[in-house]
Amino acid sequence: MRTNAAVEALPFNVRDAVRPLLRLQTLQVGQMLFGRGDRPGWLWFPVEGAISLVTELADGDSVEVAMIGRDGIVGGSSALDDGTAGCGAFVQMQGMGFTLEIGAARKMARESEAFRDVLIRHEQLILAQAQQSAACNAKHELKTRIARWLLWARDVSGHDNLSVTQEQLAQLLGVRRTSVTMIAQSLQRAGVIAYRRGSLEVREPEALQTIACECYHTIKQRYDRLRNLNRSSSPGGPPSPGTPTNDKFGLIGV
Question: Do β-strands 62-68 and 23-27 pair in parallel, antiparallel, or remain unpaired?
Answer without folding.
Answer: unpaired
